[in-house]
Amino acid sequence: MKNTTHSFLIIFGILLMFLNCKAQTSSPNAETIIDRIKENITVEWQRETVDTYKGGSPEMKITGIATTFLATMDVLKRAKAKGLNMVITHEPTFYNHFDTTEQFEGDSIVAAKQKYIKDNGMVVFRFHDHIHQTSIDGIYKGVVDKMDWKKYEQKQRPYIYKLPEMTLKELGNQLKTIFNTPLIRIVGNPGMPITQVGMVLGAAGSARQINVLQREDVEALIIGETHEWETVEYVRDAVTLGKKKALIIIGHANSEEPGMDYCASWLKSFISEVPVEFVPAGDPFWTPN
């Protein structure tokens, strides 16, 4: 009887250890998730970066992960409804690049968003700098896949694509269909034939955008957004001077959100304990018919 009891206790102890290990395996904390990301990017994690926690804390247990372009209130609510309490967002949560909230003291919108994150046990982490810097840039990878432009890539000229000849208007219509939006804006001659198209996604700034447009092998440039009095006017003057140049503005969200869809697939390659799902924020703009 004594040996039987002893054997039972041993088996019971092993079972408890197994269940404890399984529970730990199935419920990683936020720090574990971020450590996995750091292990799987191809660059060193920067000390100075916007890729930090915007809500929640590293020790919080994670039930699921949502990737998104923006951690909007709508995205937070949909992630919560899906049981995804960690939101990995590409862009800021609190309306400026560094997510500083001092200027919003007493603001009811910021306070409500912070309260929702806290009350619902959510973690919000930004993944901006390092997804761009890793090889390959995850944002461009997602966008190129969505556009099915990999076949147009040129190894010696990254982010410049050699397309079958078409007019600028035809390319604009293709992009409207790809991104399912009526809001694409174009500067340039609609009938201009083009084959060489560059991409500078997001809001990279006019200096980088104009630098690409200055290349002889770039006829049209696709961007997310820009100051309208900078890159836009550079192209307008170029057109007036008879240069073969054009600018296509598809919107910041359209130009980067597919990258966070790809991010979800990438995360699944090394995170299996919890579900990972892309939750789109979508383009915030609409236009009257």
TrEMBL record:
One GO cellular component, as annotated: cytoplasm
Amino acids binding a divalent metal cation: 90, 252, 256
Residues of the signal peptide: 1-23
Cross-referenced SUPFAM superfamilies: NIF3 (NGG1p interacting factor 3)-like
Listed PANTHER family: GTP CYCLOHYDROLASE 1 TYPE 2 HOMOLOG (PTHR13799:SF14), NGG1 INTERACTING FACTOR 3 (PTHR13799)
UniProt name for this protein: Putative NIF3 family GTP cyclohydrolase 1 type 2
Assigned keywords, A-Z: Hydrolase, Metal-binding, Signal
Family named by the database record: Belongs to the GTP cyclohydrolase I type 2/NIF3 family.
